[in-house]
């Protein structure tokens, strides 16, 4: 009878099998008792693991977008698509990112507690970052405005998965990113279309040099022209012109103004005498990397004669 009191059997039945724990009484060594408890926990974990199908998440860099691109900075968004095959949500512990070019680190950082991936779901996690071109050019002597840099973007995901534990998923993507340069704009000549004191119309003949190694497609041209420190016109022109990388293009820009509102300097210009000019503006262009805003500023001196007059 005493033997029956010293022995007790407890059975735990699960869908995937049976786990049995035997308590052999207080006369057994303490280590065996601990082993029994640990064994119970292990067996229950295995039983639960058998009920559900656990798997490692899958991930991929699905996008590398540059929504803002100008001569000062590039704002980049890296899209990371993560798939969770498990029946419960899993936490995304950290996202570690790095962008380099031929071994030169351009940008790096860590996003902690980046969110949770839903059960049996897909989530796109966005990594926003900014490249400041001045910092890059000041740091690396061999990088200059106008270049196109090869880049390697790496993203490392740290994810906690039940039963499996913490896993690391390394990702990478290669591509190119530009370091934009301002265009060089020259005023070649002015064709006077209509001359009068009340209103004068003319056509500016401009030469635009693309200082970048990539092609640009000009969509619009905005300018403010000052001659002899006098502003003679501002306008915005819709212009569709393509200029190859490091190539030269031509623009014809109409302008209208009232000569009687200006001093004698303007009359000297119209007579073909030499004078200085300043043109400030910006062009909106399409590039292989997306739309871009390129400002320009040019100060020079010209006679503003037509080519036929010069010859």
UniProtKB/TrEMBL annotation:
This is Water stress and hypersensitive response domain-containing protein. It holds the Pfam family LEA_2. Residues 59-176, 185-301 form the Water stress and hypersensitive response domain. InterPro entries: Lea14-like, LEA_2, WHy-dom. GO terms for cellular component: cytosol. Gene3D superfamilies: 2.60.40.1820. It comes from the Eukaryota. One of its GO terms (biological process) is response to desiccation. Belongs to the LEA type 2 family. PANTHER family: OS03G0843300 PROTEIN, PTHR31459.
């Amino acid at each position: 009878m005493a033997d029956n009191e010293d022995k007790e059997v407890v059975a735990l039945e699960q869908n995937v099998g049976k786990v049995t724990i035997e308590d052999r009484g207080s006369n057994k060594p303490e280590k065996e008792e601990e082993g029994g408890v640990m064994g119970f926990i292990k067996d229950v974990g295995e039983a639960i693991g058998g009920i559900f199908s656990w798997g490692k998440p899958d991930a991929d860099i699905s996008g590398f977008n540059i929504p803002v691109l100008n001569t000062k900075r590039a704002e980049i968004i890296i899209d990371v698509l993560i798939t969770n095959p498990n029946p419960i949500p899993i936490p995304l512990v950290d996202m570690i990112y790095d962008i380099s070019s031929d071994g030169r680190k351009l940008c790096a950082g860590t996003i902690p507690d980046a969110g949770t991936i839903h059960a049996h779901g897909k989530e796109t996690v966005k990594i926003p970052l900014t490249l400041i071109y001045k910092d890059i050019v000041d740091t690396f002597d061999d990088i200059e405005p106008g270049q196109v840099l090869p880049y390697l973007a790496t993203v490392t995901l740290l994810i906690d998965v039940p039963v499996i534990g913490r896993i690391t998923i390394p990702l990478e993507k290669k591509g190119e990113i530009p370091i934009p340069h301002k265009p060089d704009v020259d005023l070649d000549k002015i064709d006077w279309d209509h001359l009068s004191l009340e209103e004068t119309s003319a056509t500016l003949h401009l030469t635009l040099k693309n200082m970048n190694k990539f092609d640009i497609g000009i969509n619009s041209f905005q300018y403010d022209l000052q001659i002899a420190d006098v502003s003679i016109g501002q306008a915005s022109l819709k212009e569709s012109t393509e200029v190859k990388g490091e190539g030269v293009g031509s623009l014809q820009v109409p302008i209208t103004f009232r000569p009687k509102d200006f001093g004698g300097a303007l009359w000297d210009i119209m007579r073909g005498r030499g004078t200085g000019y300043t043109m400030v503006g910006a062009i909106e262009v399409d590039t292989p990397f997306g739309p871009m805003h390129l400002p320009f500023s040019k100060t020079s001196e010209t006679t503003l004669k037509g080519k036929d007059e010069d010859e």
